[in-house]
Write a structure and sequence with these properties.
single chain; 184 residues; 5 strands; 58% helix; globular
């Protein structure tokens, strides 16, 4: 079984993925793959440096904030590398239970390989509070980060199951996951 988890920043994707991982699922985290590639993929780094004159996240983020085409360019460059890693993992773990956590639900390498999608969401207020709890992030930066993601409605349209994580504890989430699929 391959499950996809997606949703906006700080909506609870990682918490749901943690629960499934503790229940024996192999976890694929698209953000972690991206960060690893950002440090180790000479091909991806070269493409980023050609387009953004850097592969530093803060430089790229500044470009995204100031240039309309920058986010599309970033996604065009990076998604193919992340998808290649996800594909490799899935192919080398055929028959195993896998959970893929991806904030950007790409068609190839996510939507086409998962059996169903869990979307996490919460109120904007909760998202901001959770983002601000993360080290070194200020409210203005949190607003910008959220601006470049899909809307809650766009995420919801992709989901087979939608979990609103407002006010939920891990124990609450475990109960909701049990309701979604008793095999978890």
């Amino acid at each position: 079984m391959i499950i996809g988890i997606t949703g906006g920043i700080a909506t609870g994707k990682s918490t749901v993925a943690d629960i499934l991982e503790r229940r024996g699922f192999f976890r694929v985290d698209a953000d972690k793959i991206y960060n690893d590639l950002l440090n180790n993929s000479y091909s991806m780094i070269a493409e980023l440096e050609k387009r953004f004159q850097s592969h530093d996240k803060s430089v790229i983020m500044h470009k995204i904030e100031t240039e309309k085409s920058a986010l599309k360019d970033l996604n065009t460059i990076t998604h193919k590398y992340v998808v290649e890693k996800i594909d490799g993992f899935v192919k080398s773990n055929i028959g195993k239970n896998i959970v893929i956590e991806a904030p950007v639900p790409v068609k190839r390498g996510f939507l086409d390989i998962v059996e169903f999608i869990i979307v996490t969401n919460c109120s904007r207020k909760t998202q901001i509070e959770r983002i601000l709890e993360r080290k070194g992030i200020i409210k203005e930066k949190a607003d910008i980060m959220m601006e470049f993601q899909l809307t809650a409605v766009q995420y919801a349209e992709l989901g087979d199951y939608i979990i609103n994580t407002d006010g939920m504890s891990s124990a609450d989430l475990k109960k909701v996951i049990d309701l979604i699929h008793p095999l978890f």
